[in-house]
Amino acid sequence: EMKQSAAIPVCLMALFCALLLLTSCYRPVYPEGEEQVETVSVPLDHSSRANVELDLGAGALDVSGGASLLMSGDLRYSIAKLRPQMRTSKVGEATAITIRQPDSHTAISDSKYHWNLQLNNDVLLDLAVNCGAGHTNMNLGTLNLRSVTVSIGAGQVDLDLRGHPKRDYDVSVSGGVGQATLYL
Q1: CA angle 78-119-50, nearest 5°?
Q2: 66-91 pLDDT, tens per residue?
């Protein structure tokens, strides 16, 4: 009898641990709606320098030069809870721009979350990109770069730095299980 009564609490404990494990793996699924498009328009406003940080957990990102503004483009998404968060601040002639995908443990498809951004070619630029899953395509050869930092999770990054730089600049690329292709 003693062995049977001890086996019951062990079974209950194992069941409890299994339920705890299953609930810790729960990933919320947010309802997809119609695709939303938010226009990005950051004026030059006498900025001679900019610090741009882009944090995209999952989705597609395209970044290039050619903007007449400091930054222009669009942010597309179809899940309301994952609306991109954008913050800008200015100190003197320096502007800081941060665009973040809200923290989430849900998976989204590239076609439903896509940022397409253009940066000004003349402003001295520090660019930091943190990308998780998805595809990032950056064509930065026309920009006036001071530094480029790219952190890759499980996605793919194509980083094209071909051009005629006005100065030397630092490039740092680090990654997890993703893939990076650099063009110099």
Answers
A1: 110
A2: 999 999 999 999 988 889 999 999 99
CA 184-180-146 angle, 5° bins = 50
Residue 126 and residue 79 in contact, taking contact as beta carbons nearer than 8 Å? no
pLDDT, tens digit, 9 for 90 and up, residues 81-124: 889 999 999 999 999 999 999 976 555 544 478 999 999 999 99
Whole-angstrom distance, CA of residue 121 vs CA of residue 168: 15
Q: What angle do CA 77, 152, 88 make, to 5 degrees?
A: 55
Q: Could you tell me the pTM of the whole model?
A: 0.81
| Residue in 104, 75, 80, 85 with CA at minimum distance from that of residue 32 | 80
Residue 184 to residue 181: CA distance in whole angstroms: 10
- DSSP for 22-91, please give it: HHHT----PPP-SPEEEEEEE--TT-SEEEEEEEEEEEEEEEES--SSSEEEEEEES-GGG--EEEEEEE
Is there a contact between 103 and 57 (Cβ–Cβ < 8 Å)? yes
